[in-house]
Amino acid sequence: METTEVMEERLPPADWRPRKASPGADALWLFISIAAVLVLARIWVAPHASAPALQAWATIFIAICVQALPFLVFGVALSAAITSFVPARVWTRVLPRHPAAAVPVAGVCGAVLPGCECASVPVAGGLMAKGVAPSAALTFLLAAPAINPIVMVSTAVAFPRDPGLVAGRFAASLTVAVLAGWLWLRFGRTDLIRIPQGPPPGAGRWDSFRQAMRHDLMHAGGFLVVGGVAAATINVVVPASWVDSVAGIPLVSVLILAVLAVLMSICSEADAFVAASLTQFSPTAKLAFLVVGPMVDLKLIALQSGIFGRRFAVRFIPLTFALAVVVSLAYGKAFL
User: Quick check: is 200 in a domain?
Assistant: First the structure.
């Protein structure tokens, strides 16, 4: 029989703990596994399903997810890289000192630098913390996820035969972002915005990049799946006669897709594929869907309320929604 001293020597140290797998890694592999199951189900299960509606639903859903996934992954990776490796002080050097002139420049910066909705809100908060005028930071917040290069390429892929809609998304979204910035500069109050403090020293840049990549991919991927389910259901479940009757009313159809964009909360790198699947609606209604979604949706409402405060959100979000609908209607009537 072993002595007590020998047995104690074989015990692990008091501070020893089993190594746990990273939650982000587990979530990433779960997302990949679900995507693989969906693709295999489309190949093996859907052909044997007897209901034509089920086959149509599976085809639409898989098409949306498979087409949008590469843009989603690429956009999330670039957004995480910008958030982790580009210091906020760079923006203070790029933007003009006068707030009115800084607003359109911030909009143009959003057009050339990719960033998803989830990243644009904390980035805008970081810009404010570094001294950038709130109106310019808010313009960047709206423009970056709406008209960045990844979003515009994905929109062109989703609408290969409709370049007017692609150009309309860029022009209308930039117009809304600049107008919202100027209106906030003129009528907004600084005391309504809870400006975040600068980030404390923490993990390294590569660790921040990996964490942001995992979080944003899972977060945006989940909303993509929800959006695909909703779009497929609308195309299959909702009676065609009802959709046609509603889609034929210009103002009503625009408002319906604008509200739907808020509720579906799809990542801007993927929303064009969902809009392209809504074939019953007019180009103007699709444009409203594409303009509203990256600027006002459920996750943005939560993020803006949490970072900038509820008093700011209840004023800025309705302003953005109204501008997006009005500008989309005006552009659609004039050019589409």
Answer: yes
